[in-house]
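Quick illustration, no need to memorize.
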Amino acid sequence: MSAVSVILPVYNAHRTLREAVESLEADVLHAAEPDCVEVIAVNDGSTDGSGEMLDAMARIAPWLRVLHRSHGGIVSALNAGLAAARGTYIARMDADDASLPGRLTHQRAYLDAHPDIGLVGGQVEFGGDHGSARGYALHVDWLNTLSTPEDIMLARFIESPFAHPSVMFRRELVERYGGYRDGAFPEDYELWLRWMDAGVRMARVDAPVLRWNDPPARLSRTDARYSVAAFYTIKAQYLECWLSRENPFHPDVYLWGAGRITRQRVRKLQDEGVRVRAWVDIDPAKIGQRIGGAPVLSQEQLPSPGSCFILTYVGNRDARSEIASWLDARGYRLGVDYLPVA
């Protein structure tokens, strides 16, 4: 049995595929034991020669296994790779990214040394254009700040805390909690949320593990499953689960942020049964109004710590940090009295 199985789904990736596979080669060849790493490339019905390229590479790289299948989509390809994997640990990789030297060694060593951790990411380099793809670049900067299981757990309803092709996890998690699910949602974020909801602890190694590129055809740019609406829908479902356990005032919450976009996003949470007791806003023009029957309060009108639960539904990172500082200074505790959401 291999120690690590790298799952690499491939669909019409002829232009970037060779670099992706070769970026894993150094880690494979310098592994401590022979045959302890396998790369499983799942050719998902490619029509651009990707399958033939994989077969040619596999003839000279015995650590590369190629599975050919008719086109079924990313989730089906991922689960096919999982079913074929022989590793104790599963690492993810995409055909348009590059694994950085030492990645598999760092992540495997971390999981070996931390049996309480089920999944580990790492530092990610953004391989796109920082000007035209500023949102992606900022997301990478943000996720690189999350290292401890507590950081990741408390930030998981802000944005997805991992770049999918940067993670390694224990195979037993798939057997215990299930693999990737197909639906109108991002399959990786749903997996993180479902596993964390089941109590799986996740962390990040303080080492660069991936160059995360941003080609125009990336699924997160072209597929409706990765739309803003899809993220908010799946996020609301798991956030309600968390609130039902952790919020002593459930289903009531105080919602910090009464703008139009926030109200639209909160509707998905209300659809899950969460009730907005009051809205909080700094805009004097909104304070004193009512939204859906709930009053809009100033921050000074919030109940004291221990007598309410607050969701800070603010997308701007600087504003979210300022709100957290204001709440912390007044005795509200992160994860106990309030939780950041975006």
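The chain has a mean pLDDT of 94.
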